[in-house]
Backbone:
């Protein structure tokens, strides 16, 4: 080598240097492939052969108290994208094929890529067999796009009750992060409960996802099961939910609200089970099963009757004269009233220079008479005789103006004022501000659900139940019923004699008082009419009732918006609901009352509901 010409030695060194450089480059590339880029290429290699896919379980079904299937599932399909394989320049073409806006598909793809580029994420869900059949051939022209089987909500019972069942939809980003942080198996695009029982019992209804392993080709298209499905993990179906709802009563009550706006809530006063829950008008729950058609969503939102608003749980209105049994009980408990307390009603009451009107001059009345004929003057005076702070405390005891236990995710608390409320609202105020509270008007608001709970306590003799929809769950593994956690009832500190007196006075309302037009020999009902003042139009009609009088099994609160007197519009609905629940039919002699209710149209006036 030492005798070699200089030119040769130079060339040899250059050659050796090039070999070393090539070796270093090759080694560097190996390091990059095996260490730096290993996750990406490993994932791609796996995807070239086997792909893991989450298999969502059938969502738990819902049944009524008698085993009638109300909410079930039907076969559906989703279109998913594997972001790292999908050519984003074809987003517009995919959108055209799916019949979706470009922006919608692009947003799904971006979210999927950000979430996990190697995981399947849906861009369209809830597609029917017919829809996917029309799309499938075109979808296979897109790399990284696949069709997956699934299910969507169905309502075979034909009973609307959308505010009971609730709605489902794609999980939001914030909720996804929260659930994943808690270790829950949720992924982008998963369907979750948004409202109603779907939301309240999401964990029970959802079940546990499984896993499927699929063989795929280089374009990401499924070619079959990996190892014949031997390594797949089967999903576990969600719990079936039995509701306290009575499907027959619900359907009948819904029919009584055709062409009306309002609400009706019926409870079992002994358990708190919700037997019927009507908000009128409402909507077909199938309309809000994903994917929601834009035209349907726009129609529901633009409807001035606001069918998406839950009047039964969220409408907060003055309770009108339905407060009078409460006023009597508070007066008796605090000693400001006795059954013999008597006044003369001239048809109006003057206090602080202001005239408070009554609807009639009732003459000489005692406490029972005042409830039976709904004498306002009597309860104006009763309110002024009360200690306002005690009145507030008793209102809260009955669940007014405070949060109350229920499994409905969204329910209004109403307004039950105290002295600090008046000071905040009006600054300087006098007791004249309190007079109208005695007849359920002024700065006081309750919901139909709260009214139903209140009348249930009157029905059962003073126990405040927790209104709830869930009755039991059926475990998919053991098929043994699982009881939902329902807060125990609260016993109100009311003397039995006082409660018995007020209940009897409510019975006289139906026998010969303001609700005598709905009295029937078929069953004994007790109740109280009410009218809620409405500054935006005709007043709202209210009625609370329970039946049978001696041993009640149903308590009802009815609100009919812009319908005037409770005795005319609300009492017939409550009376017919009670009869239908107790007997399963309506007596022939009461059919004219049904016809009158069905033919009434009460939707022409604007509503004051918030």
Residues:
């Amino acid at each position: 080598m030492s005798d070699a010409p200089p030119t040769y030695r130079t060339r040899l060194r250059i050659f050796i240097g090039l070999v070393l450089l090539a070796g270093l480059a090759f080694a560097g590339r190996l390091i990059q492939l095996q260490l730096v880029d290993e996750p990406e290429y490993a994932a791609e290699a796996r995807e070239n052969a086997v792909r893991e896919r989450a298999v969502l379980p059938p969502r738990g079904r819902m049944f009524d108290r008698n085993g009638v299937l109300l909410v079930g599932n039907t076969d559906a399909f989703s279109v998913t994208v594997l972001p790292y394989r999908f050519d984003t320049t074809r987003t517009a073409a995919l959108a055209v094929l799916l019949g979706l806006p470009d922006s919608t598909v692009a947003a799904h793809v971006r979210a999927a890529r950000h979430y996990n580029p190697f995981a399947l994420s849906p861009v369209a869900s809830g597609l029917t067999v017919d829809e996917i059949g029309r799309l499938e051939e075109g979808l296979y022209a897109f790399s990284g796009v696949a069709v997956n089987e699934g299910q969507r909500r169905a309502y075979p019972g034909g009973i609307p009750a959308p505010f009971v069942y609730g709605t489902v939809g794609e999980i939001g980003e914030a909720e996804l992060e929260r659930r994943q942080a808690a270790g829950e198996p949720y992924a982008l695009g998963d369907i979750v409960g948004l409202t109603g029982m779907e939301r309240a019992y999401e964990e029970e209804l959802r079940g546990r996802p499984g896993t499927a392993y699929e063989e795929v080709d280089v374009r990401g298209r499924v070619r079959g099961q990996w190892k014949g499905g031997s390594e797949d993990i089967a999903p576990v179906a969600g719990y079936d939910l039995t509701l306290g709802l009575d499907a027959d009563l619900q359907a009948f009550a819904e029919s009584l609200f055709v062409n009306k706006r309002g609400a009706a809530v019926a409870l079992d006063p002994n358990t708190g089970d919700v037997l019927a829950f009507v908000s009128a008008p409402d909507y077909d729950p199938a309309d809000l099963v994903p994917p929601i058609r834009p035209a349907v969503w726009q129609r529901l939102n633009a409807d001035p009757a606001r069918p998406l608003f839950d009047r039964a749980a969220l409408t907060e209105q003055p309770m009108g004269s339905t407060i009078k049994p409460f006023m009597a009980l508070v007066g008796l408990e605090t000693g400001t009233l006795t059954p013999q307390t008597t006044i003369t009603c001239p048809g109006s009451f003057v206090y602080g220079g202001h005239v408070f009107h009554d609807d009639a001059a009732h003459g000489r009345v005692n406490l029972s008479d005042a409830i039976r004929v709904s004498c306002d003057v009597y309860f104006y005076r009763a309110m002024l005789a009360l200690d306002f702070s005690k009145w507030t405390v008793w209102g809260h005891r009955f669940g007014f103006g405070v949060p109350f236990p229920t499994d409905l995710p969204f329910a209004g608390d109403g307004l039950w004022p105290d002295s600090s409320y008046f000071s905040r609202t009006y600054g300087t105020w006098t007791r004249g501000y309190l007079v109208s509270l005695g007849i359920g008007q002024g700065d006081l608001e309750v919901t139909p659900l709260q009214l139903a709970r209140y009348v249930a306590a009157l029905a059962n003799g003073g126990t405040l139940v927790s209104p709830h929809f869930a009755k039991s769950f059926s475990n998919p593994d053991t098929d043994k019923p699982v009881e939902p956690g329902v807060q125990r009832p609260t016993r109100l500190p009311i003397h039995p004699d006082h409660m018995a007196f007020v209940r009897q006075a409510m019975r006289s309302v139906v026998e010969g008082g303001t609700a005598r037009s709905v009295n029937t020999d078929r069953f004994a009902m007790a109740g109280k009419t009410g009218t809620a003042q409405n500054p935006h139009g005709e007043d709202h009609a209210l009625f609370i009732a329970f039946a049978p009088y001696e041993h009640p099994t149903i308590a009802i609160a009815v609100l009919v918006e812009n319908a005037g007197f409770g005795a005319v519009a609300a009492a017939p609905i409550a009376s017919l609901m009670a009869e239908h629940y107790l007997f399963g039919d309506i007596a022939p002699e009461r059919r004219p009352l049904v016809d009158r209710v069905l033919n009434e149209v009460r939707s022409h006036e604007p509503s004051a509901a918030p």
